[in-house]
Model the fold of this input.
Amino acid sequence: MRSSRLVVLSLAAIGAVGLTPSVGAAQSATQGFADSWYWGAYGGYTSFGTAFGTENVHTNAPTIGADWMLTRTKFALNIFADQSYFSTSSSIGSPTGAAPLAVNINDMRRLGFALMIFTPEYRAFKPYVGVGYSFNFINSAALRTCSGCNTFPTQAAADSNNKAIVNARSMGKAFGNVGLMYVYKRFAPFAQFTVMPTQGKSDWYLNGTGFTTIWALGLRYNLGTSIEKW
Done:
């Protein structure tokens, strides 16, 4: 009877040892993820359209950025800043005339935040969806030199249109995104896709057909817990 019990205990111990690596690996991979500060960097590209006369100009702009993520078990707050590099043409409505203003624009900075909601994970993979808001700034905008366009009858009209050109450089926009992180110890490489509605805006330069989309690949690093322990 005693020997039978020893056999059962031995088999149970062997089974536990056999299961420990797979279970332990899954747990150790995401251990310490919740209630943590993550800092990250990413690169990718921003794709958008601009309206220029009767044309829709499509631009793919290389993009780099950095972000900060404060995690909970199922949620996270993400704050980010990035810049896209491009040189293209656009147009906005004129406050003094029927013809739109033809403008050359360069580069864009984005500052924003998002609420990330983690969906059911698989091992160390953490899918998520997010909703957020960003402040978008075109770095420079200047009237395009072209025949028969951007002419103003008075200095007051010129001043009014120049003010419109400056005001159209910035715009706040809501957006949504989806992403996937792979969490291993303190490291979390990720891929993310963002969609921002920008179609047909006459008072902002990213105003072509369709949406502005942003693809990003990056790496986040866990700098430690965000909960102070007593």
Notes: The chain has one domain: 34-225. The first strand starts at residue 36 and ends at 52. Strands lie at 36-52, 55-71, 75-92, 101-118, 125-143, 170-182, 187-197, 211-225.
